Amino acid sequence: MNTPVIPTTAVDDLVAVTATGATPDVSFQPSWLSTGGLERFTLRSGPREWHGLRPATQDWAEVGDGLRRAHEALRRLPVRRIVAAFDTAAELWAKRDFPERRDTVRSAAAITGMSEETIDRALDGELSGLRAEHLLAALERELGVPEVLDGFERDGRLRGSTTAIGPRVTLAVFSGNVPGLPVRSLVRALLVKSALIAKIPAREPSFTAAFLRTLREVEPVVADAVVALYWDRDDEANQSAALEQADAVIAYGSDEACAAIRARVAPHQVYEQHGHKLSFGVISRAYLAANGAAEVARRIAADTSELNQHACLSPQVYLVEAGREEANALAGRVAEAMRAAAADFPPGEVPREDAVIVEHRRLLAGWRAASSADAGVWVSEGDTDWTVVLDDALLPLSGAGNRVARLVVVPSLAAAVDAVRPYAKHLQNVGLGAVGEEFWQVSRELAVLGASRIAAPGAMIGASMVWKHDGQPRIAGLLRWCDVENHPEVD
Questions:
Q1: Residue 202 lies in a domain
Q2: Max Cα–Cα distance, the chain, nearest Å
Q3: Where is the signal peptide (predicted)?
Q4: What CATH number corresponds to the domain at position 398?
C-alpha cells in the first residue's frame, strides 16, 4: 500500500501563508477548543518570559471530553495518512528558511544560549526521522503491519486476525532544553491514534506549538487531537486534572521528577518513563590503528560538540585503550577537532552557572595534570567554548555538558566495561569504536549491562525513530491488542 502524498503545491502554499503570520504564543489549542474560557499562563526561564493559554482547573473534564471526541475522529484516519501528514510537515520544517522554523530557532537560541547553527543541526536530525520511510520502518519493526492500527489484519502465526488499539488520551510531560525533543513522543502517540495533552518543557517551550500549527495546516484532524500547554512543576491542581483525563502517561525528566509522576499514575494507566541517562564512548587499540588518530579525534569531537553535549545521547566520557604517549597524542588531536567544530557550529552563550562549572572542571583537571604524567588539559582561549581533559581514572561524573571531552585511559576493553558498570542503572548510549570479534563481544557485554543503543563514534547523536528508545518498544508499548482466533470467519 502506497503512502499518500500531499501535493507540492500545498507545501508551497503553506510556506507562503505561514510567512505572513504573526509570531504566536507557546501554547496550542485545537480548533474545537474555544479560547474564550481559557486562562493565561506565564512561563519564566531566567530573565525571559513566554505566554500561553490553558484550561482553568475546573474545565479539564470538558477538555478531556473534547480530546476523546478528537480521538474518535483520529481513529477514522488510515495510519498511512497520518504518516503522510508528518512527512509533509517535516518536509516544510526541513527548509531552514521556513518561517516557523526560523522563529523557533531564534526563540530556542534565546532561552538555551545555544547558537542558531547548533540548534539547526539538531532540528535537521530530529526532522529527518519524521519522514515517511522512517516512520513506516518504526511501525513495521514494532507492529509488523502498520494497518493493525486501522482494523483487523490477518496474522498467520495466530491463524487468525489481530488489531491494535491506542489510548484515547495520552499525557506527555516533557522536560529538558534539547530543541525538538518532544516530537518523538508526540508523533508516536498520534501514530497510534491517541489524543495528546503535551506539557511543554520550560527550557525550550517554542517548538511543540510551532510544529503543531504546521501540522494543522497539513492535516487538521491530527493536530486537533493535541492540546499543548504549560504548568509549573509545583502546580498540583493542573497536573492532577490533566492526569485524570489520561489513559497513558509519558514522563521526561530527572529520576525524582519521574518518580513523583509515577506515584500518581493509576493502575489502569499505561506509563512510560524517560529519566536520567548517561552515555559513554569506548575506543579500542585496533579501532584507533585502523582509523587513525585524526579521524578518531574528529569523531569524538563531533559526539561531544553536537547539542553542546546536553543530550542524553551525548558522551560524558570516552574510554580509550591506549598507552600514555598514544593517548596524549589523541587528546591533542581531539583539541584540534574541538576547535574546528566550535568554528563550524559555535556553542553560543554558555549560561553563567554552567560556565562556572566548566571553569571548576578545568581547574581540577589542571591540578591533576600538574601532578600526573598521565593527565592533561587543553582549553579554548578566552572562553569556555571547548575543553579536553585526559585522565587515567574515571572520577565521579559531574558537569553540565558544554563541550567538555573527557578521555580516560584504560588498559583493556574489559577494563572499559568495568569502568562503566557502576553507572549501569542509567546507561543509555555507547559510541563503540571496536572492530571484528571484539566489537560483537563488547557490544553484548554492554547490552547485558544496560545499554539500549550502540553506535559508531561520531554517530552517537541522531538516534533514529526506529530505535527502541531506552530499550523499550515505545509504539507497541502504548497499545493493547485484540486477537480473533478459533473462529470460522478467519478460516
A1: yes
A2: 80
A3: none
A4: 3.40.309.10
| C-alpha cell of residue 287 | 579501532
Assess whether 325 and 414 both reside in one domain.
yes
Cβ neighbour number for residue 83 with a 10 Å cutoff? 25
Looking at the fold, whether 295 and 222 belong to one and the same domain comes out as no
Grid coordinates 475546573 are at which residue?
58
Cα torsion 217, 465, 474, 118: sign: negative
- Written as one string, the DSSP assignment of 365-376 is HHHHHHH-TT-E
Q: What is the CATH number of the domain that holds 108?
A: 3.40.605.10
pTM of the model: 0.92
What domain range is 305 assigned to?
278-463
Same domain as 378, residue 316 = yes
Same domain, 326 and 386: yes
Question: How high is the mean pLDDT in each 10-residue block of the chain (491 residues)?
Answer: 38 37 74 91 82 94 97 98 98 97 93 94 95 98 98 94 98 88 93 98 92 98 97 92 97 94 96 95 98 98 96 96 95 98 95 90 91 92 95 75 95 96 96 98 98 98 94 97 95 77
CA separation for the pair 3, 6 (Å, rounded): 10
